[in-house]
Each structure stands twice: as C-alpha cells, then as structure tokens.
Write a structure and sequence with these properties.
The protein is an alpha/beta fold. It is 44% helix and 14% strand. It has 20 helices and 15 strands. A 6-stranded mixed beta sheet has the order 3-4-14-9-10-13, with helices on both faces.
C-alpha cells in the first residue's frame, strides 16, 4: 500500500511518510494508489471486536508498513477508557423513524475530532521516534480540530503545535478548551479573519517546500490522510452495530445511509472511503449550514468558494467554511483519478474562482452516492427543540443541522445514521434558545471557563506567522 498525490508530482510513499507530510510535496493531497477492499466475510468476522480491535483491523489495511502489534497498541492507547467516557467508545442512539445518532463526542474535547486525533497523536509520536525527527504542526481550526489536536499532542516528545483560529468566531467553550492549555509545545494563534484565512496561511506555508523542510512542518487538519483513515473506522462500527439485531442471513449487503454535518469535507470523505472499501452504504448526505458552498456544488456541479467577507458567522461555527480543502480528493475521483485533469481544474479555480463540473454532476449521486442539503439557524433551533421534546435527547447545533437534512433524505426501509459533531454543552446559548434549559459542562471539565487563557493575537500576515514559527519551532 503506497500513497500518491492528486496532482501527480509525488513518488509513491508508505503510510508512515504521509502521516508526517500533510499536503503532498507538489501541493496536492495524498491518496491511496488503490483503495483497500474488505470482503463481506471479513466484515462479518469483525462483528465481535471492540472498537480498538476494529480500528486495528481497518487501519492495518492502510498501514502495512507499521507492525501489527505496534498498531494494535496504538489503537488500544488511543481508544482507551481514560480517553473516552462511553465503554463502547461510539454509542448509537435511535431517535425513531429509522434515524439514529452515531455518538462521536465521548472523547476528551467532547467532539468527533477526538476520534481521529487520539490515534494521530499516538501514530505521529511513534513514527517520529523511529525516524529521529521533530515535527511542527501548523493547523487551522474553526472550533473543534484545534482542541482535539492539542489535547492529543500536548506534551508529546518532538512535536510542537501552532494552531490558527479566527478571532471571535468560536464559542466561549471552544476557545477555553484551546487557550487554557499551558503545555510548552502548544501555541495558539488567533488570526484577525475567518477560518478560510487561517487555512490559506497554513497552506501557503505547507506549499513552500524550503520553509517546510527547514522547520519540519506537518499538518493534522483533515488534509492529513491519517485522519481520513482513522475516521473511516466509525463507519464500519456504526454499520456493524446497526445490523447486530438482524438475522445473520440478512446482514450481508444490508444498506444504510449516513448524514454528515460538513465544513471541510473530511468527515464525509471518510464515509466515502469506507463505502469504497466495502461497507454497504447507500447514500452519503452532506449537511451544510448557511455557508452552503458544498450543497450548491452537489446540486449544480459548480464549485465556487466564497470570500472571507461572504462567509457567514453562524450558530454552528465549526461549519463556517467556504473553501473545503478535502473536496480535491473527491474531484480527483470524479475526474477518473487523472492528475493532469485535476491540476487543470485547480488552476481554473485559482484563475476564475470556480470549477465547473456540471457535466459530471449526475454522477455525484448515481455513481458516488452523494446527496446534500442546507440547514439554517431557525432549522437548528427547531430541531434541537423537537428532538429534546420527543426523545429527551439534546443536540449540538451541527448535529441538529444533520438531523434536519437527514429527515429530508430518508428512504423507506433504509436506516439513516447521523454523525454527531459534539456535545451540546459546548454550545449552551443555542440550547437555551431552543429549549429554555441551561446546561452545564461535564464534571470532568468543571471550571474550564474560569481557567486563565494564553493566546497570541496576530494579523492575517504570512510574514508574521513565519517569523513566529521560526522562533518557536521545536527541533530534535
């Protein structure tokens, strides 16, 4: 199993290399030369595995260069009772009407990003120790990636984290989770701009190969294929748990659909990866908020990212993204995995601000299984209120976006699983607006909002960021 670039300019490399690189060396994204395949018999044989054991089996398909016993240890350490509150790691909660919430917020930062970040923290430290290298992570967050990465990497040997976040665009809880960390290897940088500005800065540094190599830069955003592979595991888990009660003769090929709240397209891309590997997934439904560039793309075939000024600040802030970095991997598949066509499309995007794939749009659903929809603030409030009243379940605003869109795309006889984004405690204002209930933080995070915070504020200035990283980068 080797990995190549969507743009064709990188020699095939193993999994342990792409973990450290983030962007490919030619500015593209790493993708498998061929997607690993899991047979129905293998999938059924995994039914009795614990989550760490299942993660080992799935990730072994991506990482044959890591010895199985080492991979199993990393998965046990990542998905441990110390890190995750629920014994099953990923609990499923039925809501009736063939809707089920897939619980991904049981980790240390109460968000789905923990599911990949805890494994990435283990695997990065492992690979670095064996290559005697340092790694300076430059990341961008709209809310949850930052805290998940920092909690997974705090205190790790040979790793420093430089996390860019948009000033004033995250919830108080999200800011507190990040900015209250005092570990010497954690650097929070609040950029005067929106998430896309942070992501553009991260990409500019990653594409400067001289600076990247001089300072051992890497990435943990969803451009890192290590995250995509780790996130694919819970699609396997959710399908297995959803079909546990079926008679054995009916399980093979039994289709379910997933709705995924989406901003950067990494989480739903992991679902497409699981689908191509062999999980019987019928539909992958993308749920957008008011920043619905991706919904527009899947409906029209035209991808036209909005400017920072046109990106709305919403009550589901982790989805306030107008330029989805992982979409390149999907477009690569649409264009027949042809790096020349992909590179031409991205030149078109740079020159005109849009990519026109309208001729390919009918294939998005028919061939790849994608559908999409949009949810607004009013939809979120009503969905949180309704689900609380009907089922006694509180939702965060992003998962509420998912439930709203999922209800519009249900098919009779096909279970619809909605991926949870975070605990509602991270967004108490909208829960109060929807239900009138004031919710506190979980006991294990008591006092979080009162802790001192440490953050460096910075203009949207690439030169200033380069200087800061040059001064604070870790070395071996």
């Amino acid at each position: 199993m080797k990995y190549i670039s969507t743009r064709g300019g990188m020699e095939p490399v193993p999994y342990s290399v792409i973990l450290l690189e983030g962007l490919a060396t030619d500015g593209g994204l790493a993708v498998p030369e061929t997607t690993p395949v899991v047979t129905p018999e293998e999938l059924e044989s995994w039914r009795g595995l614990s989550y760490p054991e299942l993660a080992t089996e799935v990730l072994a398909r991506f990482a044959p260069d890591i010895p199985r016993e080492d991979l199993a240890r990393m998965c046990r350490d990542a998905y441990s009772a110390e890190n995750f509150a629920a014994p099953e790691i990923v609990p499923l909660t039925p809501l009736g009407d063939e809707l089920t919430v897939v619980g991904l917020s049981e980790g240390p930062t109460l968000a789905f990003k923990d599911m990949a970040m805890q494994f990435l923290g283990q695997s990065l430290e492992y690979v670095l120790a064996r290559s005697d290298r340092a790694l300076n992570i430059v990341g961008a967050t709209s809310g949850d990636t930052g805290s998940a990465a920092e909690y997974a990497l705090r205190g790790k040997d040979g790793i420093a984290v430089f996390m860019l976040s948009p000033q004033g665009r995250m919830s108080d809880f999200q800011r507190a989770q990040m900015y209250s960390l005092t570990d010497e290897n954690i650097h929070n940088i609040a950029i005067d701009g929106v998430f896309d500005d942070c992501q553009n800065l991260m990409k500019a540094l990653s594409e400067d190969l001289e600076f990247k190599r001089a300072h051992d830069l890497g990435a943990v955003n969803s451009v890192n294929l290590g995250r995509v592979s780790a996130q694919s595991v819970y699609y396997f888990w959710a399908w297995l748990r959803q079909t546990d009660a079926l008679p054995a003769a009916e399980r093979a090929g039994y289709e379910v659909s997933f709705t995924v709240p989406s901003g950067n397209f990494g989480n739903i891309l992991s679902g497409y990866t699981a689908k191509t590997m062999g999980v019987p997934i019928r539909r992958l439904v993308l749920a957008a908020n008011e920043n619905n560039v991706l919904d527009d793309f899947f409906r029209s075939g035209v991808y036209a990212p909005r400017s920072a000024a046109e990106t709305h600040a919403t009550s589901s802030p982790s989805m306030d993204i107008s330029k989805a970095s992982n979409l390149e991997r999907f477009v690569y598949e649409v264009l027949g995995r042809d790096p020349e066509r992909l590179a031409a499309a991205w030149r078109e995007l740079a020159e005109t601000g849009r990519i026109d794939l309208a001729a390919e749009q009918p294939r998005f659903e028919a061939e790849f299984g994608f559908q999409s929809g949009t949810s607004t603030h009013a939809d979120r409030v009503e969905t949180i209120r309704d689900v609380s009243a009907r089922y006694g379940v509180l939702l965060d605003p992003h998962t509420a976006d998912g439930i709203k869109v999922a209800r519009e795309h249900r098919e009779p006889g096909v279970p619809m699983l909605v991926l949870e984004t975070a605990k509602p405690a991270k967004f108490p204002e909208i829960v109060l607006e929807a239900t009138g209930a004031r919710i506190g933080v979980p006991e294990r995070l008591a006092g979080l909002l009162e802790r001192p915070q440490r953050v460096t504020e910075m203009a949207d200035d690439e030169a200033a960021l380069r200087a800061y990283i040059s001064e604070h980068a870790t070395t071996r």
